[in-house]
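QA checklist item 7 of 12: single-chain prediction sanity check.
[x] sequence parsed
[x] length recorded as 738
[x] structure emitted
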Amino acid sequence: MNLPEQATSNGMEQAFQVLEKHWGYHAFRPLQEEAIDAVLQGRDSLVVLPTGGGKSLCYQVPALLREGLAVVVSPLIALMKDQVDTLRDLGIQAAAVNSSQTGEEKREIADRIRGGEVKILYVAPERLCTERMLTFLGQVKIAFFAIDEAHCISSWGHQFRPEYRLLGKLRDRFPGVNLHAYTATATEQVRTDIATQLHQRQPRILVGDFDRPNLTYRVVPRQELRRQVREVIDRFTGQAGIIYCISRRQVEELNLFLVQSGYRSVAYHAGLDHDRRQAAQDDFLNERAQIVVATVAFGMGIDKPNVRYVIHASATKSIENYQQETGRAGRDGLPSECHLFYGSQDFVTWKKMLADLPTEAREMATKQLQLKSLFCHGMTCRHRSLVEYFGQSYERDNCRACDVCLQEMQEMSDALVISQKILSCVVRVEERFGGDYVASVLAGSREQRVLENGHDRLSTYGLLGEHAKKEIRQWLDQLESQQLLERRGEYGTLSVTAKGRRVFKGEFVPRLLQPRVNKPVSRNQRVELSELETLLFEELRKLRRDIAAEKNVAPFVIFGDVTLIDLSSRRPTCKENFLHIHGVGQRKCDEYAARFIEVIIAQTELLELPRDRNFDPLQAPGVVESMSGSTPDEAPTKNIPRAASEMFAAGASLEEVAERMQRAQSTVAQYLVDYIERECLVSSTPWVDEDVFQQVSLAALEVDSDRLKPLHEALLGKISYDEIRIVKACLKNMEARG
């Protein structure tokens, strides 16, 4: 094993120092410590963290602690540029080699690498695996390889890229160098394939929580798309958003409508030439455009943290695609929204697009499309549906952040009668037709096919004539999602299931929903900046744009929105306090403090706002944490997990730590689990009673699963998820000791 030269017992302490010095953060996010430790210990790793979970820090931080060059594989030039710009602005020696550079520029980078002047090198997989590049890298000391967007190597994944398969040769060419894979979306099957294709050696596999609590999901039928889109945009005036469309034509038409309506919008799809795509991307990143309307060709290379909403104007082809694309909203941890407007025609369109795939790939894609259809028409919490799709448990009864849990869909009081009418019609047409046709019959349509088939003479004809056909069609989909109807054959003809036949007897009452009249409320409105503080925030945004233009980088490279909000709330007027702002390291303080402080002083005088607020390091977290009702991914707090560990070491209970830290008990329980694993504790005392420990231990022997939900069910729901997690951590340590 290639043990790192500087991976000592205090390696993680050095990692904390690097984090604070360069990034200005005071704590790692979940699993970042473990991922960094794997790199420092010289062990291959596979890390799955949701978009916005901080994957890049998992290899950037240890790159500064390891001797040699860290080589990062990245699929897109735009992503490389953003990462390199950001690192250089932090005072870190980084470079990228790609096709946009001249020969002279590439030679200059090569000379810097030979001279030890580059710590992190970004390169595309197809360029890395050329004989010339491999030979060059063989002449320098390589610290490790980091494979970003690693799901692209798996043919089971939703974004397979053949060039990623070339990376398998790295193990043969560099047998002593560790390989670390990072991705935001990977099922267990994809994770296994990644490790196999890269020839990883007993990799440490770290899978983060797929839930994104700062995102609000809304999945509703498409009715008047342009009106629906404008309602979302108008709630986020002046803020960035992405709108995904199913086709290039839809992109062009919707973008033209938005531009003509006065919005700063640009179009992006693969049919545009390179210069137009690049211009659209640059306009969006540099805040000259507020909205980008795009096909799925847009997004993987975008590292913009302050996208406040993602709209899907039609259904995606899989849940993986949806999870990754919606994950581009709210990467800074602030409240953001994801809206999906779907129609039954979307799934027909996708089926046509998939028709030319090889048989095995088509069957797999069709199955994924069916699961996506069930997600759209389902009535389960959206957060729960996404988390459980990726094999994890969702422990909350109400997420308070989706259309289902916010009760934005109202339940039909006469659902049983309506369902009986719909199912009866399916039977009356002899289970030979699809949903659109059945809806036409129930609505009393006079279309030619209905009349030719004589179905206008059926007892169910026009039985729901008081409802629109679209509404009936949605109910058909909802009944299918409850397994009361099923589609069969190539044409998707509907038949009534055994469960559905119970509805005729009133033995099962389905749920049927329709949208409420009230408009949804944006969680973004909870941002606790006063009206005057918001004016200061806008002035700081202008300054950020000006500095970014001077340096020819994207504004978020200078500071993220979280940092600007913290500045607007606390209003530092000296460098010492400026350095305590979230996201401000020493380099950024030295470079930008004077200009931002100048604006803060001028604006606070004009607006009569107090200055230098809440800089007592012992004070509770401020405005940023209170925005969404839960701790965002980037909160301007000190190292709370470490402080919690010290309290646990002193014997403090979960309740005591939660109260002292002003954190939810479930969050503190995770701190405790991390503490138990780090300290290799085998006793859960004083946090879990001995009898509870024994019950969980016995159940764990009988339940063959790493997931919490089967254990919780085996224990009849009498023992909390927190207690189960704590006991499992102790059992894991006992097993490791042998």
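[x] summary fact logged: The radius of gyration is 27 Å.
[ ] second reviewer sign-off
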